[in-house]
Amino acid sequence: MVSEIGYGMWGMGGWTGSDDQESLASLQRSVDLGCNFFDTALAYGNGHSESLLGQLVRANQDKRLYTATKIPPKNQQWPSRRNFTLDDCYPPDYIQKSIEISLKNLGTPSIDLIQFHTWEDSWVDDDRWLQTLHNLKSQNLINAIGLSLNRWEPWNGVRAVRDGLVDAVQVIYNIFDQNPEDDLFPACREKDVAVIARVPFDEGSLTGILTKQSKWPKGDWRNLYFVPENLNSTVDRVEQLKPLAPPGMTLPEMAIRFILMNQTVSTIIPGMRKLKNVESNFAAADAGPLAGDLCAELRKHRWDRKPTPWSY
């Protein structure tokens, strides 16, 4: 069993403003509050995030902490595109080499959940990836197999789930992005596949602190994502949500509790680089379900989006 609140570790892998000591303190605080699921990736700071997770695991050997990481696509292209082949992204020898590097970064004998960092459901027809992972599983190097689905493409994983090929899927799911409920979640319930909800705050917009003038330091990924086309419309939609938060409830708390209303979700992995974020997210989970009328009102804010060049 994993905690309702897991830990998304992308930000501490290389985002501007990250500090290793602050990251490690925040990670430890999450463990103290009951967190036992940690999601990282080889691509996060070129393995730096994985090494931080390894330090955390070694510092808590009396606790069962679950490690999840991801194999980056060989062509280094996010998201995947329909014309990409398995050999473009995940040839068998590359899968094995990437997992070996991740194991070295983590310093653990095995990885609890290995995920493809991008995915095309057409790869179901080329089972070399599955044979490779089953071989590594037989060596006790990995314990479970998962997919991290491309942004705003929850449909692009349903086939792998329905064919019984994976143990978990990671998908964007939040107040705005409710479309995994259409096809992906029913398939996961049918096949008993775990659902990891990522981007619970819509890359920070659902914290309520962004404005149409928000900027980030040079080189920060958020400058590429929150281009004016996206930032302006996102801020407008967030402003419509703010009046819905009951007295005493913050927008981030409402966002977390909305996701936890869905019983198909196994764990949520907010990025938490600071102690205050860890404590507020766990407090939100402890607060329990939202009122039914509020949840119904939030459902009206579903925002169906399609991938664009800036939305990788």
- How many individual helices? 12
Strands, total number: 8
Mean pLDDT, rounded to whole units?
96
Sequence of strands across the biggest β-sheet? 1-2-3-4-5-6-7-8
Order of helices and strands: EHEHEHHEHEHEHEHHHEHH
Helix content: 25-40%
Shape assignment: globular
Q: What's the name of the CATH homologous superfamily?
A: NADP-dependent oxidoreductase domain
Would you tell me which CATH topology applies?
TIM Barrel
Strand content: 5-15%
Radius of gyration: 19 Å
Note the gap between the termini: 31 Å
Task: Return the CATH class.
Answer: Alpha Beta
Structural description of this entry:
The protein is an alpha/beta fold. The chain has a single domain (about 5-300), classed as Alpha-Beta Barrel (TIM Barrel), CATH 3.20.20. About 35% of the residues lie in helices and about 10% in strands. An 8-stranded parallel β-sheet has the order 1-2-3-4-5-6-7-8, with helices on one face. Strand 2, helix 2 and strand 3 (about 65-70) form a beta-alpha-beta unit. The radius of gyration is 19 Å and the shape is globular. The model has no long low-confidence stretch (mean pLDDT about 95).
List the helices and strands and how they pair.
Blueprint: E1 7-8, H1 20-32, E2 37-39, H2 48-59, E3 66-71, H3 86-89, H4 92-106, E4 111-116, H5 128-138, E5 142-148, H6 158-162, E6 168-172, H7 184-191, E7 194-198, H8 222-225, H9 228-241, H10 251-260, E8 267-268, H11 275-286, H12 292-299
Parallel strand pairs: 1-2, 2-3, 3-4, 4-5, 5-6, 6-7, 7-8
Helix pairs in contact: 1-2, 1-11, 4-5, 10-11
